[in-house]
Predict the structure.
Amino acid sequence: MRKAQAKKLPLAPDPKFNDKLVTRFVNNLMWAGKKSGAYGIFYNALEKVSKQTGEDGYEVWKKALANITPGVEVRSRRIGGATFQIPSEVRADRKISLSIKWMVRYSRERNGRSMADKLANEIVAASKGEGASYKKKEDTHRMAEANKAFAHFRV
């Protein structure tokens, strides 16, 4: 690194729940700078979640995010000409980032009419411990467990 690392800009909390995590999620959901559209999709999805589950959509979303947050991941490292997958703990900031990105990505890949429908279905599935984003977390943990033998290479 040549220069000082860029400072993190403070996020404004969202208007409905007054939560910075929601803003962070909406920023990842946003397409082509359309933030108000992304907020619309997110709030519609939470309404659909509350209709489906009969619980508070916001709480279900938080539970879903907690369910798909990874604890460990593998990182590639070259040692003596060979590349090893070395398991390592995930930083707190990266944990949130990964879980949000996975949820948005696998929501987009789902089949459904609107993005709000797809996101709602992914949130419900993740809160139950199902769905593609939950599977991604499980696969990440399984990879780390399988490569536990190389943990001593960690720096």
